[in-house]
Amino acid sequence: MATKVTPxxxxxxxxYTDVVKMADLADYAPVKGCMVIKPYGYALWEHIKDGLDRxxxxxxxxxxxxxxxxxxxxxxxxxxxxxxxxxxxxxxTVGGGKKLEEPLVVRPTSETVIGHMYAKWIQSYRDLPVLIxxxxxxxxxxxxxxxxxxxxxxxxxxxxxxxxxxxxxQEETLRMLDVYTEFAVEDAxxxxxxxxxxESEKFAGAxxxxxxxxxxxxxxxxxxxxxxxxxxxxxxAFDIRFLDENNxxxxxxxxxxxxxxxxxxxxxxxxxxxxxxxxxPKLAPIQVVVVPIWRxxxxxxxxxxSVRQIEALLKDEVRLxxxxxxEYSPGWKFNEWEMRGVPLRIExxxxxxxxxxxxxxxxxxxxxxxxxxxxxxGLAGSVQEELMTIQADLYRRALQxxxxxxxxxxxxxxxxxxxxxxxxxxxxxxxxxxEAQIKEDTKATIRCIPMDxxxxxxxxxxxxxxxxxxxxxxxxx
Length: 477
Description:
The chain starts with 11 loop residues before the first helix and ends with a strand. 35% of the residues lie in helices and 28% in strands. Strand 20 (406-407), helix 13 (412-419) and strand 21 form a beta-alpha-beta unit. The protein is of the alpha+beta class. It folds into three domains: 2-271, BirA Bifunctional Protein, domain 2 (2-Layer Sandwich); 288-392, Anticodon-binding domain (Rossmann fold, 3-Layer(aba) Sandwich); 406-474, Translation Initiation Factor IF3 (2-Layer Sandwich). An eleven-stranded mixed beta sheet has the order 3-7-8-14-11-10-9-22-25-21-20, sandwiched between helices. A five-stranded mixed beta sheet has the order 16-15-17-18-19, with helices on both faces. Strands 4-6-5 form a three-stranded antiparallel beta sheet.
């Protein structure tokens, strides 16, 4: 199976598509730009969803659901919002065989319809804060699509909150950025750079947008999650007001934030190799696969008896798959589970049974270096320890790659070279014209202005003007 995968070094884009399809994550749908998420890919998304949803609820958020169809007039109420989304809108003009009185937009994001509902629900300061998240699909008419990374329809969560003060809304915006950072690091084993978007890169309708930026295996950036301080823009557009403690009418302050199925693509590109997926144990649909090995029926009986013992020890501890298919050889099974990125493979043959042991084979460490024998006694604890080690090592490896491909160029020539293979961490004067010229020259954009800023100042990497902030520049998906 692995021989069919285009090597990363030969064509990274083709490698990515090969892995997504051959690992059975997704396939192309009949409608251009859409995808079918297959069961294995959806199981990976479910673990992403569970990791995020648990954190949302721990921070006081609740789930709800809002309509897929939004009146076009809603989108048009917030000027910056409609300007930003107009090129991507899918609009329904006929329903039930009749022309609609008002066209309906297929949800590109839900700030407008949720703003309409919040205006009905929020009357008093006692109604605040409102902390709602929804898991949904959205449609944005993309011209250039790629499985999981950029599709016309995709799945995501979008949080929408309303607050009595700007300070509370800003605190919420940054809290959710921290939630995304924690999830990326702890569950996805992906190092990210949290920061603020430039004015030209912010969400349409936001006052300030924040992001977590990740580096993929080819050095390009991927926006892995965003959190937006919307100020009172949508509150004023939809008249979301409340009576404060002094009995005075005030506009609320709102936020929105989201992570999508793009995170599946990030996991593939950060950790995968020429043999297929490499999945972090916390997200893997199957954490451990047991592959028994035998040559004849006598050995089969002996080995399967031990396999049943192993299954009893592990089935309640990990997401386990026991592969006892007779029609495939052990080598074929090894290749399949490598392609699917199962973090830990347990091999057991007659000799292992006789010695009361199994062989651990780590997906993230190829060849013999990733194999070692482990006693069956105490196996559950050994498996848990091994999975924790794999999780930590995947993050460490990804962080080392990011650090090795993040540069601090001293001049514009070095800057050009840096963004061709990774991130450039450089002073920026804050001028949008300067930013646009950099993009035209290098195809690199400001990924974020990191939250962690150095003291002092320096010359802008492009124009040499006085600059007080450093930005992360990179080419992006």
